[in-house]
Amino acid sequence: MPAQRPLLNLADSSVSPARPADAPNLGVGVGLRTSHYAEVLERGRRGARGESGDRVDDGSGAQAVCVTSVGVDWFELLSENYMVPGGRPLRIVREMQEMFPLALHGVSLNIGSSDPLRPAYLDALDALARLATPRFITDHLCWTGVSETNLHDLMPLPYTDEVIEHVAARVRRVQDRLGRRIALENVSSYLSFNDDAMSEWDFVTAIAEEADCGILLDINNVYVSAHNHGIDAMKYIDSIPAERVFQIHLAGHSTSGSLLIDTHDHPVTDVVWTLFERAIKRLGPVSTLIEWDDQIPTYARLLEEADKARAIIERVTGWSSGSPNASVSSSSKSRTSESPGERRDVTA
Amino acid sequence: MSLHETQTAISEWVRAPKGVAAALEEEDASSPQRESGRAKRRLENLIRSDESLDASGRLGIYANAYFSRILGVLRADYPAVVGMIGDVGFNDLVTSYLLVEPSRSPSLRYAGLRLADFLSNHDAMARTRARWPEAGDLAAFEWARIDVFDAADGPVLGRELVSRLAPEEFAELFLCLGEWVRLRAFAHPVLQLWRAGTNGEIPRFQGTSGEAHVVIWRQDEKVFHRSLDALEEAALAKLSLGSRFDDLCEWAAIELGDEAAPGQAATWLERWLSDGLLVVA
After folding, report:
1. Contact call for B15 and A149, based on CB within 8 A
2. Is B123 a domain residue?
3. Does residue B82 belong to any structural domain of this protein?
4. Which of A167, B28, B41, B202 has the maximum number of C-beta atoms within 10 A of its C-beta?
């Protein structure tokens, strides 16, 4: 089992770069889950009626959004859950789109596969993007199936020049099809290849540079993979080019024997918060998302995690409501003063 | 190894029904050389081992996740079938199913698309069918409920619109069933079995054999179903192809006689409008 290393020396981190125009800092968001639909939409509707929260111009010119009534600045939708013909899923997308900034996060782009790209999948994603008008479209730097058979898992790729060339060419085609840049997330992995010719961070960076796409930096995945492969999580965080980081993900993990597993069924761990702080010190305020996919807690509990992320961003960068970097913001100071479990909607 | 060869090997090992170690042994046994340990060396040449876990153990994490993830989704999709054939039976069913019908869709939503057909028709399921002859029908019914949940939306023909039309205007409308409506015929009484299965009882065949005609639909984002008599089933089948209401009434007159047909057609129409089954083609 790899020895855990001391993780932090914040003093050596550098100043935040300017954000790319297509990767605005949206603030802190959460992944929307079915069990929270009713509460989120009701809070949003109350906010839209002016009963709570702020109506904030998010800078997109598309619509005013109401964010503070829900305690976060934006939501992420899992793309495949909404790539269906109709019914409740698409009604949820329409309602969410009217009220909140959204991101679409996929798990099945299969960008690293040796199979051809699937036009039908890209058509469905494009159709969903037209409905959701997301600020980001993201997926994972991995493969999920081959020979038209899906494993429904985020399988790691060999870190070689050939794979970089292969994946980057596919990312460019996807971006051409969607008419925008996407961001790819580093995945948690439990195996690595003898053919690996570089570090994971060099691999992630090379693809982002070669394809001119963004990186969705999942801090929990950095930590999980670093633990599982005996690599240096701090060096990983420090090596990712800041201007390529479009978004950050935070989640919890579990232990299984000698390995860590990216289960998204626990709170974010202390060591991941510490790594996040290091990342934010270096990157500046970046759109940050809390993921919680299994053993899903109450919405209020999820907001506690979001508030922790917000507090770190504010403390490290000085970013807050009204900050020039914040295209969407919220009155987090009011929120963080509330007791856990007794959260009320906030009127700024 | 090329990327394709690497991914193909990993995919086969991960999807092997008895786990990675058994897959390696089977690979050796089926190779022309029958050389023991050859497949393991191939795996170890590809995937790094270290002091914490060897290559087979690391790949095994993905293999376990593959099966448990899909099993979890299918258990949620087919709760009454699980209730009928039990946890062990359902695990065996999913193992066999994935061998023949690996997931072809990017979304887990469609992983169970062919389960009912597999259960009803595949040779590998002959013993299961002999013990639970109704399981295939039950699976088909449960899948239809999933299918209508997120079927395409459309403008429902409501009572309000109909009440604003003159009788002759309504008679000219070409009516269809909405995309969110399914008509299904079963050889077994699936509704009783499904009710038992979803109430935590073990669905058992009660000897009430006989065809069941069922309509399944979505209304206000909820999924509904009800049984149909043969005549209403036939009427809805006509509407599924598109028909003017007048033509339907003429057909009903042939079936029921001139006296009974108008009243029956009006009753049907009232119910169909109330259930939100109809659209104007």
Report:
1. yes
2. no
3. no
4. A167
Tell which of B61, B76, B91 closes a domain: B76
Give the model's pLDDT for residue A7. 32
Half-sphere exposure of A311 (CA within 13 A, CB side): 13
Angstroms from A152 CA to nearest CA on chain B: 7
Number of domains in chain B: 2
Residues 6+ apart with CB under 8 A from A24: A59, A135, A287, A327, A328
Is the pLDDT higher at A337 or at A103? A103
CA A93/CA A125 separation, integer angstroms: 13
Rounded alpha-carbon distances, angstroms, from residue A347 to A52, A74, A95, A122, B197: 5, 18, 22, 41, 48
Best of B150, B182, B218 to substitute, by most chain A Cβ atoms within 10 angstroms, is B150
Q: Which domain holds residue B57?
A: 1-76
Report the alpha-carbon distance of residue A313 to residue A309 in Å, rounded. 6
Question: Where do the domains of chain A lie?
Answer: 10-336
Q: Detail the DSSP E strand segments found in A219-290.
A: 245-250, 254-256, 259-261, 288-290
- Choose the mutation target among B1, B94, B107 for the interface with A, i.e. most A CBs under 10 Å: B107
Residue where a domain stops, chosen among B43, B76, B109? B76
Is B62's CB within 8 Å of A113's CB? Answer: no
The answer to whether residue B267 is domain-embedded is yes
If asked whether residues B70 and B193 sit together in one domain, one would say no
Contacts of A81 (CB under 8 A, 6+ apart): A89, B107, B109
Length of chain A counted residue by residue: 348
* Torsion angles phi and psi, residue A41, rounded to 5: -65, -40
User: Mind listing the pLDDT tens digit for each residue in B187-238?
Assistant: 999 999 999 888 887 777 666 567 799 999 999 999 999 999 999 999 999 9
The ipTM, to two decimals, is 0.92
B160 domain-assigned: yes
Q: Give residue for tokens 């022309």.
A: B32
Mean pLDDT for A239-251 is: 97
Residues B165 and B243 in one domain: yes
Say if CB A332 and CB A320 are below 8 A apart. Answer: yes
Q: Do both B169 and B249 map to the same domain?
A: yes
Pairing of strands A102-105, A136-140: parallel
**pLDDT tens digits, residue range B124-181?**
999 999 999 999 999 999 999 999 999 999 999 999 999 999 988 998 899 999 999 9
| Closest to B227 (Cα-Cα) out of B193, B252, B180, B191 | B191
Flag if B106 and A118 touch (Cβ within 8 Å).
yes
Chain A residue with the nearest C-alpha to that of B105: A150
Contact across the interface for B3 and A158, Cβ inside 8 Å: yes
User: Are B48 and B169 found together in one domain?
Assistant: no
Per the CATH hierarchy, to which homologous superfamily does domain A10-336 belong? Divalent-metal-dependent TIM barrel enzymes (3.20.20.150)
Contacts of B263 (CB under 8 A, 6+ apart): none
